[in-house]
Amino acid sequence: MADESAVVDAPDAEEARPEQTVKVEDAGPALKRLTIELPESRIKGKIEDTYTNLSNDAVLPGFRKGRAPRRLLEKRFAESIQGDVKNQLLSESYHQALEDEGLDVIGEPDVKDIDELEVPESGSLTYTVEVEVTPDFELPKFDGIKVEKKTFDVTDADVDAEIEQYRERYGQMSAVEDATVAEGDYVQSDVKVLAGENAGDDAEVVHEHPAAYTLVHGEDKEFKGHVAGILVDDMGKQLAGKKVGDTVSISMTGPEGHENEGIKGQPITLVMALTHVHRLEPAAVEDLLPQFGMQTEDELKERVKTMLEQRNEQTQQADMHKQATEQIVEAVELDLPEGLKGRQIERTLQRQQMELLYSGKQPEEIEEELAEARTQGEAEAVRQLKTFFVLDKAAKELEVEVTENEINGRIAMMAMQQQRRPEKLRNEMRQRGELEQLYLSIREQKTLDKIIEQASVTEVEAKDGE
């Protein structure tokens, strides 16, 4: 509601503490209920201050600026003055209560019955506000954490497989006329997500995605595939043998972690109208050389080996971070605010996308992993929330800071992997509100690095497939 925004902005000036009475109660997991009472003297003082400011600035017909009589100001501006006084009193008293009670707020305040609240002509004003706060818990000792450091060797086969991926990435995609869909094809379709199981044409359309691409996987990927951000377990089987002009309908339950409430956990029907079938012709190895600034295939292989070694270092670090995080989170007991769980799902997906980009994953791989993540739902959101609070507290205890240079360096690395200009990527991330997530990601990684410095680390050889 419009008035509620007044509670969010902190007072501009630091003044002597006005009188008020505050009662704090537990209202749920990491949720506090504040009952705030403002005495009549504070209310009248605020009303007088507001009328004084208005009197100094108001210009009314027949009166010079600052000369309009009080009764005329009250008659003309009484309603707006009441609203201004109410908003100011709520904002100032709420933020004063947070400071006085030492509450670390993580959500927006919920002022109860805010529309019915009125500034009384006499007597006190009492209101109730509920707000989510940081859970209170103790961290375990970091020197009790045990982590395995897995070592990786880059083989010639690894290099050849990576070059094969580059051949596909820089290959030519072409539409195949009158083709029958087969494994490895890219199917373009106009997708509608309908509400309900086995929904017909008259069903509600909860989402549309024209010209969506789906890579048709076979047995090696368990026939899984995604479209419009939704993972379908047997997508490869559903599409195999189809042709342009065919329509595929898939009845299923929407993933629990989907951002669209009409899809999340709901019975839906995916309708895919196939418009094109594309096949990839991999690029020749010699055509890759200019892309990497290389003269010979041996030079390319050496460059790719170096890149894989760097990627393995990132994988090694990420694995150690994961081990440490799991042990710390497992050792901590804390209650989470209910309201945060739903909001966390979208943040989790955004964060995971950014970390996948940093790891060098390709767009198709990223979309597959995000589609898989959407199936994990609330349980994963709860785990991510718990991890955030634990690592946030650890970062504060370990005095971890993130510099602007570190943020720019991470953006430059992501831009290089995507073959884009860093400044353009940064602007896009700013517009999408992703810079804060990037800051938190770097902060958590630095925090885990410091934790691992105190942990017991054992070096082991990575197993095949890891």
TrEMBL record:
Species this chain originates from: Algisphaera agarilytica
Pfam families cross-referenced by the UniProt entry: Trigger_C, Trigger_N
Residue span of region Disordered: 1-22
Encoding gene per record: tig
EC number from the UniProt entry: 5.2.1.8
A GO-annotated cellular component: cytoplasm
First-tier enzyme category under EC: isomerase
Statement: the UniProt record of this protein carries the keyword Transport: no
Recorded catalytic activity of this chain's protein: [protein]-peptidylproline (omega=180) = [protein]-peptidylproline (omega=0)
Major place of residence: cytoplasm
GO molecular function, a single term: ribosome binding
Protein's UniProt keywords contain Cytoplasm: yes
Family: Belongs to the FKBP-type PPIase family. Tig subfamily.
Gene3D superfamilies, sorted: 3.10.50.40, Trigger factor ribosome-binding domain, Trigger factor, C-terminal domain
Cross-referenced InterPro entries: PPIase_dom_sf (IPR046357), Trig_fac (IPR005215), Trigger_fac_C (IPR008880), Trigger_fac_C_sf (IPR037041), Trigger_fac_ribosome-bd_bac (IPR008881), Trigger_fac_ribosome-bd_sf (IPR036611), Trigger_fact/SurA_dom_sf (IPR027304)
GO biological-process terms attached to the record: 'de novo' cotranslational protein folding; cell division; protein transport; protein unfolding
Compartment(s) where it occurs, according to its Swiss-Prot or TrEMBL record: Cytoplasm
Trigger factor C-terminal domain ranges (all copies): 298-453
NCBIfam families per record: tig (TIGR00115)
Origin superkingdom: Bacteria
Protein's UniProt name: Trigger factor
Domain remark from Swiss-Prot or TrEMBL: Consists of 3 domains; the N-terminus binds the ribosome, the middle domain has PPIase activity, while the C-terminus has intrinsic chaperone activity on its own.
Function, as annotated: Involved in protein export. Acts as a chaperone by maintaining the newly synthesized protein in an open conformation. Functions as a peptidyl-prolyl cis-trans isomerase.
